[in-house]
Each structure stands twice: as structure tokens, then as C-alpha cells.
Design goal:
Oligomer: single chain
Keywords: FAD, Flavoprotein, Oxidoreductase, Tricarboxylic acid cycle
Cofactor: FAD
Protein name: Probable malate:quinone oxidoreductase
Largest sheet: 10 strands, mixed
Bound molecules: flavin-adenine dinucleotide
Number of domains: 1
Radius of gyration: 23 Å
EC number: 1.1.5.4
InterPro entries: FAD/NAD-bd_sf, MQO
CATH class: Alpha Beta
Structural class: alpha+beta
């Protein structure tokens, strides 16, 4: 068994959207640095970032009701929505920079404009949606949002959802045309192709088994070359663990103090995909509903027009479920293997606290296909079972940690965990996820390379003009950026332009 050894500046573990984004940023900021990527699968973007494994929503809080909770005084808290919208604007700016620099040739290969809508039933939910609309409508980031509780208007907006619907209860929706569908799998592959052309060494079928720190301060990664069956050791000054669900076990192997008292809880997902082109054609929006009681925020049901391989398709879901695997291609031992002496109390505390979630997930796993169809019929009353198939989505590993709210608190966001000296960082969690990859990877740069950020700032601002500036407080800058990025990324309503062309 040969034992290959190499030394490099940067190692990126995992070829998902996060490593793709960090690699692309670093190639612009420090082009002389040598970067190597190690990925256990045979291609990039095959796990959570793959187009069939996530919902492809460009999350900017235009339609996701869980980002605008109702406060105890009945008012709507829009802080999270504003934050996520601002973060998505950073992604759009960086992608526009890559298009303008011809590193991405055709933005339509990964991003399309699609209306984002929220749809609710029942008096209480309609009142909530109206208040949410009023809280957002005058905010510059949410300009263009419309509200309607008129069934005739809703028939215009979502004919498929209104067809055959009995109107026993009030209904309402909001709609904003500037939403997006993002093919994160395609984007990941585009970015890795570009990195390869820029001299980044991308090693597929390399499974990282261990990470340790050597006495010279470098990090050493031990991996299994799955093609040759050999073990390799590669060292680097900086390591990013962008292994998605596989990040927590690798972070634990580093032994850094920051890796302790953290656990992970895997939530699996299923989508229903429509195979009848006539039904697909009748819908043109991403429509988010309200989460059921006890449901985790990431399993809010939604009916989505998607563009995958240049084809329009329709997905409904996700249905949550439980699987002990941390990756779709993971092992049934992942969850149990992540329980360590330093996090066992944290994990047990979460187990006790999250009984409602566990019950919900078990119920979801037990659903029959016909019961799933019943849930779909809450969106499309006329849905026929023969028009829909089930596809297995990606795994999300939610972070469990001790917070001010107590031991073993389940987190629904993304978290950068890094060594105090910035020599290694991992990304945990998966929400809002890929949409905010640029913001999260800028956070990695700020935390791990504070000594370079000042010198990099002019280049970062060239790529991302609103870097460090609040867009909500600078509406003119937002207008400017919104218009230029939409223009560069070709974000127009294709249905309207197609109709104009036909006329
Ligand atoms: C059901 C679902 C719906 C979602 N919907 C959305 C959405 O609508 N919008 C949105 O923005 N985000 C969404 N997300 C979240 C988004 O998909 C993730 O945040 C994002 O794809 C994570 O990217 P990543 O690069 O961290 O991980 P991944 O894409 O999972 O990549 C990690 C890579 O690391 C590799 N790897 C793992 N372990 C090892 C190892 N030991 N050695 C070598 N390689 C390894 C894996 O094979 C994989 O290729 C969704 C996720 C799920 C599961």
C-alpha cells in the first residue's frame, strides 16, 4: 500500500457549494495560494447541493413564513427576514461578478426568476399573513410584494392551487415577482470547473478519514484513495471542512476545544415530483405554506416550479423523516458514532427537549404515499396520484449545542466553527443553506484570515459592492445593486417575455 504525502496552502474537504464558494473567493483574493480539494464521491455537487436533493429556493425571505415570527404582542418580527434577504444579495453580487468576469458563461444554467408566494388558509393565518405583508411591504428589500385575499385574484396567480378548491375558510396569498429558483448543483459544478481551469487540484473518490495537527502547526489529513485503495496524507496551513453532513464527525476528529459539546441531529427529506407536463405547465411560482404544529421550520410544505437541466418541473415537499445517516451516502452508524463523552449530556438533553420533533418525524416517516398525496391536495386539490413520484432529498444535520436557552438546544441555522488561531474551520447546519453560501464563506475568511481581510477588502468590494454595508439602511444602493445584478444574471420573468414574443 503506497503512502502519498503532499503539502499545500489550503485543503477544502468536500465538493459541495460551500467549498466551491470558498475556493472561488480565495482564488480571487489570494491567487498564488495552492488549493487542493478532496471529495469522497466521483463528482462535485452530488450530496445536499445537488439539484434533486434540495428545494433550489434562493432564500431571501420573500415567502418563507418562519423567518417572520409573530411576537407575543401580535406584531411581526422582520429582523431575520431582513438579515436573510441581505445575505442573499451578497450571493447575487458575487455570482454577477463571476458572470461579468466570464467565469460563469450563462447564468440561466443555474438561476431563474420565479415568483415567490406565501399561501395560507383560515382566519388566523390570513390575519398573520396580512400583518406580515404590512410589516414588509414598505421595506426597500421587499418592494413589489402584493397581498390578496380575493379568490378571483388568486385564481390568476395560482390557477392549479385554486382549481376545485372548496372555499369554506378565508384564504390569502402574497406574491413577489423577484424571487429565484437556483440550481445549486449546476452552480457547484460550474464553480469547480472554473477552479480546475485555475489550477486547483480536485481529487474525487478521496475519503477523508482523519485530521490531526502536526508539531510544526500544519494540519494533516489522512484519506483513503478509493480508486487505488491506498492511504494518503496531505498537510496544509488552512483546512476548510465543507463536508456537509459529514462535517461534524471530521470536526470532532480535530480535537480543537471549539469542537466539543456539539452534536448533530439528522433530518431526512422526501419530495414529490410531478411527471405530467400538463400539470407542470399550469403552475409558475414557489408557493410556501405554514408549518404544521410541531414541525421543524425546514419542513414547511411548498409547491415549487423548478428549472432542472433546462426543463421546467414541479416539486412538492419536503416531507421530513428520520434516518441516522449524516449524508445521503452516509452510514447508519453516523448518529451513534457522533456521540462522544464531551457531547453526550448535550445530546441527551436535546433528546428530552425535542420529544415533539421526534414524534413529528416518526409520524412523517410512517406516512403512506396516499397520505402524502392528501398533504399535496391541501395545495393542489385536484392532484392525481398517478401524476406524482417520490424522490429522496438530501440529509440535513441540525446542530445541537448548549446555549443560553439551556443544554442541548437544537439550532436551525448554519454555524461556522473555527479554531481560535483560524487554521481550521468547519461549516455545520444547513439552513438557510446554499443561498447564503457567500455570506457564510465571507464569515470564514473574516474569522480565519483577519490579518488579510484589510488588504483583501478592495477586491472583496469590487466583487461584492455592498460588503460591510447595510442595504436596508441604504435603499438607493440596494436599488442600484438589485437592478444591476438582476440584469447580469438575466433575472426577468421568462414567461412574460415568452408571451410577448409569441404575441
Ligand atoms: C431537503 C433539503 C432542502 C433544501 N432546500 C434548500 C433551498 O431551497 N435553498 C437553499 O439555499 N438551501 C437548501 N438546502 C440546504 C443546502 O442544500 C445546503 O445548505 C448546502 O447544499 C450545503 O452545502 P455543503 O457544501 O455544505 O454540503 P454538500 O453539498 O452536502 O457537500 C458536502 C460534500 O462533502 C463530501 N464529504 C462528506 N464527508 C466527506 C469525507 N469524509 N471525505 C471526503 N468528502 C466528504 C460529500 O460527499 C459532499 O459532496 C436544502 C437541504 C435539504 C437537505
Amino acid at each position: 500500500m503506497s503512502d502519498k504525502q503532499t503539502k499545500t496552502d489550503v485543503i477544502l474537504i468536500g465538493a459541495g457549494i460551500m467549498s466551491a464558494t470558498l475556493g472561488s473567493l480565495l482564488k480571487e483574493l489570494a491567487p498564488q495560494w495552492e488549493i487542493k480539494v478532496f471529495e469522497k464521491l466521483s463528482d462535485a455537487g452530488e450530496e445536499s447541493s445537488n439539484e434533486w436533493n434540495n428545494a433550489g429556493t434562493g432564500h431571501s425571505a420573500l415567502c418563507e413564513l418562519n423567518y417572520t415570527p409573530e411576537k407575543s404582542d401580535g406584531s411581526i418580527d422582520i429582523r431575520k427576514a431582513v438579515k436573510i434577504n441581505e445575505q442573499f444579495q451578497l450571493s447575487k453580487q458575487f455570482w454577477s461578478y463571476l458572470v461579468n468576469s466570464q467565469m460563469i458563461h450563462d447564468p440561466q444554467d443555474f438561476i431563474r426568476q420565479i415568483p415567490h408566494m406565501s399561501f395560507v388558509e383560515g382566519e388566523k393565518n390570513v390575519a398573520f399573513l396580512k400583518k406580515r405583508f404590512e410589516a414588509l411591504a414598505n421595506n426597500p428589500l421587499f418592494q413589489g410584494m402584493e397581498f390578496s385575499d380575493d379568490p378571483e385574484k388568486l385564481k390568476e396567480w395560482v390557477p392549479l392551487i385554486m382549481e376545485g378548491r372548496t372555499l369554506n375558510e378565508p384564504i390569502a396569498a402574497t406574491k413577489i415577482d423577484s424571487g429565484t429558483d437556483v440550481n445549486f448543483g449546476a452552480l457547484t459544478r460550474i464553480l469547480f470547473d472554473h477552479l480546475k481551469r485555475r489550477g486547483v487540484e480536485i481529487n474525487y473518490k478521496h475519503y477523508v478519514k482523519d485530521i490531526k495537527r502536526n508539531s510544526d502547526g500544519l494540519w494533516e489529513v489522512k484519506m483513503h484513495n478509493m480508486d487505488s485503495g491506498t492511504i494518503e496524507h496531505h498537510t496544509a496551513k488552512f483546512i476548510f471542512i465543507g463536508a456537509g453532513g459529514g462535517s461534524l464527525p471530521l470536526l470532532q476528529k480535530t480535537g480543537i476545544p471549539e469542537s466539543k459539546h456539539i452534536g448533530g441531529f439528522p433530518v431526512s427529506g422526501l419530495f414529490m415530483v410531478c411527471k405530467n407536463p400538463e400539470v407542470v405547465e399550469q403552475h409558475h411560482a414557489k408557493v410556501y405554506g405554514k408549518a404544521k404544529v410541531g414541525a421543524p421550520p425546514m419542513s414547511v410544505p411548498h409547491l415549487d416550479t423548478r428549472f432542472i437541466n433546462n426543463e421546467k418541473t414541479l416539486l412538492f415537499g419536503p416531507f421530513a423523516g428520520f434516518s441516522p445517516k449524516f449524508l445521503k451516502t452516509g452510514s447508519n452508524m453516523d448518529l451513534i458514532g457522533s456521540v462522544k463523552p464531551n457531547n453526550v449530556i448535550t445530546m441527551l438533553a436535546a433528546g428530552v427537549k425535542e420529544m415533539k420533533l421526534t414524534k413529528y418525524l416518526i409520524q412523517q416517516v410512517m406516512l403512506s404515499n396516499e397520505q402524502r398525496m392528501e398533504e399535496l391536495r391541501e395545495f393542489i386539490p385536484s392532484a392525481k396520484s398517478e401524476d406524482w413520484n417520490i424522490v429522496t432529498a438530501g440529509q440535513r444535520v441540525q446542530v445541537i449545542k448548549d446555549t443560553e436557552a439551556g443544554k442541548g438546544t437544537l439550532q436551525f441555522g448554519t454555524e461556522v466553527v473555527n479554531a481560535a488561531d483560524g487554521s481550521i474551520a468547519a461549516l455545520l447546519g444547513a439552513s438557510p443553506g446554499a443561498s447564503t453560501a457567500v455570506h457564510v464563506m465571507l464569515e470564514v475568511l473574516e474569522k480565519c484570515f483577519p490579518q488579510h481581510v484589510k488588504e483583501w477588502e478592495p477586491k472583496i468590494k469590487e466583487m461584492i459592492p455592498s460588503y460591510g454595508v447595510s442595504l436596508v439602511e441604504n435603499p438607493d444602493l440596494f436599488q442600484d445593486i438589485h437592478a444591476t445584478t438582476d440584469n447580469t444574471l438575466g433575472l426577468v420573468d421568462h414567461r412574460k417575455t415568452d408571451m410577448l414574443q409569441e404575441a
